[in-house]
């Protein structure tokens, strides 16, 4: 088999695997409707009284009159055409409900991701290069951060920086760029703390491992400057573990919005999921769950495909 | 060849001692090591693993272990390395001295291309990007890499060990150093490629008139390649002699033991004899002569003090009773 054919097969294999995962997850999400005790139709309506014609639409969309397999195919057909159904609470299309909440969540996730990556890798580099005492201090700090769940971070940050010092607002997402950054700072930090800890630990270990390698000593022996050695030999060669972890953390940030948005009164996807669960707005819960799966799968597939491009040593055997 | 003037050495190591901090005080690794390399000369540094060969030549580039304490003098092309600042060391590494490491697989960054490896050294030496690329291709051609322009874009994983060591040599020679430090450059290679790499190194060295230190644990190879051979044991120099002299009549029992442990191709087939005992680190050595516990000739006098290097025939040996004729 030629290298090119091997590479093509490998890429197609990854994509097929990713699609398969999404399909399986969608079956689970659809089946959840049937698993809820009682009549699925009652679950969908959330106990509200609807006209017979409205109920018919629901029955059709969810294929409730057709049995599980045909029903799933019907529903999946709608989803595949990006028709996520109608919220039983808002009587509005789930699409537009999500679309109006997505931007603030994406801004929050993006902000948290930047904080995670910049601080995480920064602390990792410093502690890998610095002396033993600084490294120990950094290890204590990052281990503590990695073990801090978002709901604890939320309470502490609110108590100190909003209520105590009054530097940041308690609630809301702000309007306009700077106001939004100001409003989203505490929520982003709350989401980023644990991710920062994990990334810093992984980065520090990866950098320290590379620093011991001979190619680093070779570069030093040739009079290559310190910063260039770090960039081209230490960080460059650690991209495998670092990018993998960043991908996982990014996906987990998406899920993390549920707690943080609720706590800070931000009207995003996460808070929407929480409120929809309590109001039994089943179509919304399904849609957000499915979205979370897709985000996970897309990110991890992207990381898988990206790694061999970043580092030839990470190429799977068939593509070499 | 007539030498009218004794050219200034490119490397001069005098009374070098080195220790690193340990749990119970400093751990000595080198004691009173001396070494002189003149331009155009190849000096072999031979000994078992842990004898301090690599450490000695790394010191010449200022690559001492973290928090190491040093004493003595190491001079490379006029620069006092042990007291040199960071900037001076960087200049030394960029222009004056270069090192070829043991394992080419480990010494070339596997994530980057061959071209990036070569260009990096040249760029550090102040060559601009375009010239560096052109010169890298030229160097690859000179060390015998086929299709050098294409090789620039390849990764180390696509080369054999021998070919990769040629790349490493090209990288080390790219800045026209006055001193080349070769740290067991053939140990990690197949026997067939060893000879090619050695002849490449020696021909390039002769062409450029560099001084070279050739570190190896193979005494026969050292004797064949080097003008002079320095034998180290447990962080000390025990014998210095011309390559052929050393081979013909070793003056130190350790050198003789090393030779007896190596199969010869010529003459009557003698039984191979392993050197008894295991190689020691300087910190574990007994009083007096470091080798005396493993030496078949040692007596009470050997325990009294560390013998100094003394002239014996064509060699300098650190032994109270040098030369085979003195042994039982």
Automatic annotation (TrEMBL), chain A:
Annotated localization: Cell membrane
UniProt-listed InterPro entries: BPD_transp_1_N, MetI-like, MetI-like_sf
Membrane topology label: Multi-pass membrane protein
Domain ABC transmembrane type-1: 102-303
GO cellular component assignments: plasma membrane
Keywords annotated in UniProt: Cell membrane, Membrane, Transmembrane, Transmembrane helix, Transport
GO BP term, example: transmembrane transport
Bilayer-spanning residue ranges: 12-33, 108-130, 151-170, 182-203, 239-264, 284-310
Superkingdom, natural source: Bacteria
PANTHER family from the UniProt entry: DIPEPTIDE TRANSPORT SYSTEM PERMEASE PROTEIN DPPB-RELATED, PEPTIDE ABC TRANSPORTER PERMEASE PROTEIN
Family note: Belongs to the binding-protein-dependent transport system permease family.
Protein's UniProt name: Peptide/nickel transport system permease protein
TrEMBL record, chain B:
Top-level taxonomic group: Bacteria
InterPro entries listed in its UniProt record: AAA+_ATPase (IPR003593), ABC_Ni/Peptide_Import (IPR050388), ABC_transporter-like_ATP-bd (IPR003439), ABC_transporter-like_CS (IPR017871), Oligopep_ABC_C (IPR013563), P-loop_NTPase (IPR027417)
GO biological process, one term: peptide transport
Gene Ontology CC annotation, any one: plasma membrane
All residue ranges annotated as the ABC transporter domain in the record: 11-259
SUPFAM superfamilies: P-loop containing nucleoside triphosphate hydrolases
Membrane topology per record: Peripheral membrane protein
Recorded coiled-coil stretches: none
Xref: CDD domains: ABC_NikE_OppD_transporters
The keyword Nucleotide-binding is annotated on this UniProt entry: yes
Gene Ontology molecular function, alphabetical: ATP binding; ATP hydrolysis activity
Keywords of this entry: ATP-binding, Cell membrane, Membrane, Nucleotide-binding, Transport
Subcellular location(s) per record: Cell membrane
Family: Belongs to the ABC transporter superfamily.
Protein name: Oligopeptide/dipeptide ABC transporter, ATP-binding protein, C-terminal domain-containing protein
